[in-house]
Amino acid sequence: MELGLKNKVAFVAASSKGLGKAVALELSREGAKVVINGRYKESLEKTKQEIEQQTHQEVLAVAGDLSVAAEREQVIETILDLCKTVDILITNTGGPPTGKFETFKQEDWDKAYNLLLATVVGLINGFLPGMKEQQWGRIIAITSMAVKQPVNNLILSNSVRASVAGLLKTLSNEVGSYGITVNNVMPGYTETERLMQLMENNPSFSSAKSEVPLARFGRPEEFAAAVAFLASERASYITGISLPVDGGWIKGIF
Residue 142 in 3-state DSSP? Predict the structure, then answer.
């Protein structure tokens, strides 16, 4: 299937590893001009080289911590200087610490807000004007299946990621007339370093695979394929949705 992504500029946040890296690789394979991001220049440069070797497409790498407002603004400014406009925005972050409500202080909630919500708001503020001007754009957030069905011992993630879903649904109504779609993709248990850490820190995760109807964890490339489709011309009439890529883990009908 031709997705119509050739030469589209795509910025993928937190893409030096994990799901972000998988998405950046998939978009590059489809011919998009991909800009990757991460906190650490060394690992980011390594990922840039890996993607370029596999896809034979140039990849731009812009380092910066997106949860820090000043660094986020610098990343946005650098990308706009290099690319003028971002056609496809993929927001993504690492996850906050595990724990129950009484585990955390107010500063932990503030950090979770800056990590999970402020980054999304800031990136949209930076790139939405260009999308509106050209009357085309894709905004896709990578959140978690916990948006639809909370996961035990993840109260920070469960709470703040749900607010991201609310933001996106509302925004989709506001910008649809500009040819911009806004969607949320919710990964389930996927074979990443983050999942391994969660399983080590949370004893209840030991039975996670048995909770998945497909009886296995997802692969990063399976998740990335769903994101690439939503970013494409083929998905031009899909907006405002929260799409689980979870092997059937979420038990609700809607």
Answer: strand
Give the chain's largest Cα–Cα span. 50
Q: How confident is the model at residue 1 (pLDDT cuts 50, 70, 90)?
A: confident
CA-CA-CA-CA torsion sign (209, 210, 211, 214): positive
Whether 66 contacts 78, CB under 8 Å:
no
- Record the tokens describing residue 135, joined without a space: 């009357």
Count of domains forming the chain: 1
User: Where do we find the tokens 């949860």?
Assistant: 67
150-172 per-position pLDDT tens digit: 988 899 999 999 999 999 999 99
Q: Is residue 159 part of a domain?
A: yes
Q: Which of 86, 33, 91, 40 is nearest to 63 (CA)?
A: 40
| Bridge partners of residue 38, in order along the sequence | 63
Model pTM score: 0.94
Structural domain including 177 reads: 9-238
Angle at 115 between CA 112 and CA 118, to 5 degrees: 105
The pLDDT of residue 2 is: 86
Alpha-carbon distance values, 68 to 44, 106, 112 (Å): 18, 18, 12
Please report whether residue 4 resides in a domain.
no
Q: How many CB atoms lie within 10 A of CB 162?
A: 19
